[in-house]
Design a protein that fits this description.
The complex is a heterodimer of chains A (513) and B (82).
Chain A lengths: L3 H12 L4 E5 L2 E4 H16 L8 E6 L3 H12 L3 E6 L4 H11 L3 E4 L3 H8 L8 E4 L19 E7 L7 E6 H12 L11 E4 L7 H12 L2 E4 L6 H11 L4 E4 L1 H7 L13 E4 L6 H10 L4 E6 L9 E5 L17 E2 L3 E5 L8 E7 L10 H7 E3 L5 E11 L5 E6 L3 E4 L2 E4 H11 L5 E7 L5 E8 L5 H9 L10 E5 L12 H10 L14
Parallel strand pairs in A: 3-4, 3-5, 5-6, 9-10, 11-12, 12-13, 24-25
Antiparallel strand pairs in A: 1-2, 7-8, 13-14, 14-15, 16-17, 17-19, 18-19, 19-20, 21-22, 23-24
Chain B lengths: L1 H15 L21 H15 L5 H6 L3 H15 L1
Classes of the chains: A alpha/beta (513), B mainly alpha (82).
C-alpha cells in the first residue's frame, strides 16, 4: 500500500517518459527527467546513512530539484519536512530541533541552510546540496508500510512554538485513493494543475502529487510577494485545467473578474478558508466549463476530507451567512458534531483513515485534540464550529478558539500575542483580525500602552514569525476594558476600538511600551 | 509631471503601508518592503486608482515590475484622460 504513492509516479514515467511533469518559468521538465533527478537524490541520501522514518528537511525553492527532493526523500524511506527560507532562522531551527532533522537539502541558499543547521545544543544537522545530475538508474523505492512516516508539517502553535503534524503513509494513501480511485474525479494525463502553495502548506501535496500520479503536469507559481495575484497569469498562460486555490486568491482578483476568461478549466476547487457565495458567483463566470467544489480539511486529516459541489446559479445557503457550505465527508471519512455539544451548533470532529495519530512530540496537545468515541472510534477535534442542514451538509460557523486564517494559513492569535508580550515586557496585548475594504482578512494587534510601538514591534516579530503572521496594524490603547472576572474583555476592546471607529495611537516612536 | 506623480504616489504609499517615513524610487519593488504583499498591493492599486482618478486593467497590474512602471502607467493613463 505504502509504495503505491511512488509506484503511481514510476508507472507514469515508464508509460510516458517524454510527457511534461512540471513547468517552471516556462521550462517543461519531463517525467523521465524528474525521475532521473529523484533517483539521484535518493542515492545521495542513502550515502548519508539515512534510515527509514528519519526526517529530512528541505529548504524549499521554486525549482525542479525541490520537487525531485520530495520524491527522492520518500523513495529513500525517509520523511520530508519542508522549510521556508523566508521564515525567521529561529523558527526553522526550532523545526530542525523538534523534528530531529539530520540532513537539510537546499539548492541555492547555502548560507541560509548552514545558518539554520547550526542549532545550538543540537546534534549535527548537515546541509546538503540537492542540485544533482539526473541518474539513469532505476528508481527503486524502499517499501513502506501504512504506519511509516511520510511528511511532517509545522503549523502555528498557541504556546509560541510551531506544532508538528506527522502524516503517515496510511493517511496519504487514503487521501489518494479517495482522489484517484473513487471515480469521482476524472483526471487525465492531458490535465494541467495549478500549484499555488508553499510546500509547507499541505494543500501543495494535492497540487503536485495528484498530477504526478495520473501522468499530468503541474505549474508552480513563482515565489514572489505578489504570488496570489500572479495566479491569474498562470491560469491563463498555462491553460490550467485543475486549480485548487485558497478563496483569498479569487478575492484579490475580484475587481478584474470581467477580464478573466478560463474556458479550459475543468475543476475549480477551493480549500483553506471560508468561501463566500457572492465572490464565487463572480468567479463562476470566469470558469464556465468547470466543476466547482468547496473542500474542507485540516492538516491533521490529510489535505481535505469534506466536499461541497457548488452549482452555478444556486442561491446562497439560507443558514450559511453568505458562506458556501463545506458539504459532506468524502469517501472513507466520517464527520460529526462533538458529542458534548448542545443545540444545533457543535465542534466538528473527524474520523477515518486520513486522520493522523497525534501531534509530533506533543502528548499534551494530542490529548487535547484527539479522542475516542464511546463506540471506540478515534477522532480529531477540529476546533471549527459547525452545524448540519437538512440535506446533511456541514456548515462552517466559526472557531471555538482564537485560530484564524490568513490567506489560507492557520494562525493561532496566541502565538502572535506570546511574542508581542515578550517584546513589550509582558504588557497586555490582544491580537485579532479585521477585514479590509476589499474584503481581505488581516491581523491587528492592540497593546496596552501610551506609546505607539508598531514599527519596532514589527521588526522584532519578523525575527520570530513568518510574514503572514505579522500584524498589519498596531493600535496602542492606554487601558484595556476588563470583564467582571477582571480579565481583558477582548470583545469589548475590539468593539470599542474597531467598530466604534476610535483609533488611538501615541506620537512617540520610542521602543518603550 | 513625473515629479508631481511621484510626490502624490509617495503619500499613497505612506498611507497604505502606514509608515510616514517611507521613500519611493523608480527601481523599488515589492521585495524591498517586508510588508508589501498581495493584500497591500491590492490596497495600493485601489488607492492609486482613487487618488489619480484612473482605472487599471488586470494585465497592466500584472505587468508592473517596479514603482517606475507604475509611475509611467499613471502618466500614460493621465495623458489619455487629458
Amino acid at each position: 500500500m505504502g509504495t503505491s504513492i511512488l509506484s503511481r509516479f514510476i508507472e507514469c514515467s515508464r508509460q510516458s517518459p517524454a510527457s511534461p511533469a512540471i513547468f517552471i518559468d516556462d521550462r517543461p521538465y519531463t517525467y523521465d527527467e524528474l525521475k532521473g533527478l529523484c533517483s539521484a537524490v535518493c542515492t545521495l541520501l542513502k550515502a548519508h546513512d539515512l534510515k527509514k522514518g528519519d526526517r529530512v528537511g528541505i529548504l524549499t525553492e521554486n525549482n525542479v530539484y525541490t520537487y525531485a527532493s520530495i520524491l527522492g526523500i520518500l523513495s529513500s524511506g525517509a520523511c520530508y519536512v519542508p522549510m521556508n527560507h523566508d521564515n525567521p532562522v529561529e523558527r526553522n531551527r526550532a523545526i530542525i530541533a523538534d523534528a530531529g532533522i539530520k540532513v537539510l537539502l537546499y539548492t541555492e541558499k547555502e548560507e541560509e541552510a548552514r545558518e539554520i543547521c547550526a542549532v545550538p545544543r543540537q546534534e549535527n544537522c548537515r546541509p546538503l546540496n540537492n542540485r544533482v545530475t539526473a541518474s539513469a538508474a532505476n528508481l527503486d523505492p524502499v517499501a513502506q508500510i501504512p504506519a511509516d512516516l511520510c511528511y511532517l508539517l509545522f503549523t502555528s502553535g498557541t504556546t509560541g512554538k510551531p506544532k508538528g503534524v506527522p502524516i503517515y503513509y496510511r493517511n496519504l494513501s487514503a487521501f489518494l485513493d479517495m482522489m484517484l480511485a473513487s471515480g469521482r474525479y476524472l483526471f487525465k494525463p492531458s490535465d494541467r494543475f495549478l500549484q499555488m502553495f508553499e510546500l509547507t502548506f499541505d494543500l501543495s501535496v494535492f497540487s503536485f502529487l495528484v498530477p504526478l500520479c495520473v501522468g499530468a503536469s503541474f505549474y508552480p507559481i513563482p515565489r514572489k510577494r505578489l504570488a496570489y495575484l500572479e495566479v491569474a497569469d498562470i491560469l491563463e498562460a498555462g491553460k490550467i485545467t485543475v486549480a485548487l486555490m485558497v478563496p483569498s486568491a479569487i478575492n484579490y482578483l475580484k475587481p478584474y473578474f470581467g477580464e478573466i476568461h478560463l474556458p479550459d478549466m475543468r475543476y475549480s476547487l477551493f480549500c483553506g478558508e471560508a468561501l463566500y457565495h457572492e465572490v464565487l458567483c463572480g468567479w463562476a463566470q470566469c470558469v464556465p466549463g468547470a466543476k466547482i467544489e468547496n473542500l474542507y480539511g485540516p492538516t491533521e486529516a490529510t489535505i481535505f476530507c469534506l466536499r461541497y459541489e457548488w452549482q452555478s446559479g444556486e442561491l446562497p445557503h439560507p443558514e450559511g451567512k453568505g458562506i458556501v457550505p463545506i458539504g459532506r465527508p468524502m469517501e472513507g471519512m466520517d464527520a460529526f458534531k462533538n458529542e458534548n455539544s448542545h443545540g444545533e451548533e457543535g465542534e466538528l470532529c473527524l474520523s477515518g483513515e486520513q486522520v493522523t495519530l497525534g501531534y509530533w512530540n506533543n502528548p499534551e496537545k494530542t490529548a487535547e485534540a484527539f479522542g475516542t468515541t464511546e463506540g471506540g472510534k478515534k477522532f480529531y477535534r477540529t476546533g471549527d464550529l459547525c452545524k448540519v442542514d437538512a440535506a446533511a451538509n456541514f456548515l462552517y460557523i466559526g472557531r471555538i478558539d482564537n485560530q484564524v486564517k490568513i490567506d489560507g494559513h492557520r494562525v493561532e492569535l496566541e502565538e502572535i500575542e506570546f511574542h508581542s508580550r515578550a517584546f513589550c515586557s509582558d504588557k497586555q496585548v490582544v491580537a485579532t483580525v479585521n477585514t479590509s475594504e476589499a474584503g481581505s482578512v488581516y491581523i491587528l494587534l492592540f497593546i496596552e500602552s501610551e506609546n505607539d510601538v508598531g514599527k519596532d514591534l514589527s521588526e522584532y516579530l519578523r525575527k520570530h514569525l513568518p510574514e503572514y503572521m505579522i500584524p498589519k496594524q498596531t493600535i496602542s490603547v492606554s487601558r484595556f476594558p476588563l470583564n467582571s472576572n477582571g480579565k481583558v474583555d477582548r470583545k469589548a476592546l475590539i468593539n470599542e476600538y474597531l467598530h466604534g471607529d476610535r483609533w488611538i495611537a501615541g506620537d512617540s516612536k520610542e521602543p518603550n511600551c | 509631471m513625473n515629479e508631481e506623480i511621484t510626490g502624490k504616489l509617495k503619500s499613497v504609499f505612506q498611507s497604505v503601508f502606514d509608515e510616514n517615513d517611507i521613500e519611493i524610487n523608480r527601481e523599488m519593488t515589492a521585495e524591498d518592503l517586508p510588508s508589501w504583499d498581495s493584500l497591500h498591493h491590492i490596497q495600493l492599486i485601489s488607492e492609486v486608482e482613487r487618488a489619480f482618478r484612473i482605472k487599471f486593467k488586470l494585465r497592466e497590474v500584472l505587468s508592473m515590475k517596479n514603482v517606475g512602471d507604475l509611475i509611467d502607467l499613471i502618466h500614460a493613463k493621465q495623458e489619455v484622460a487629458a
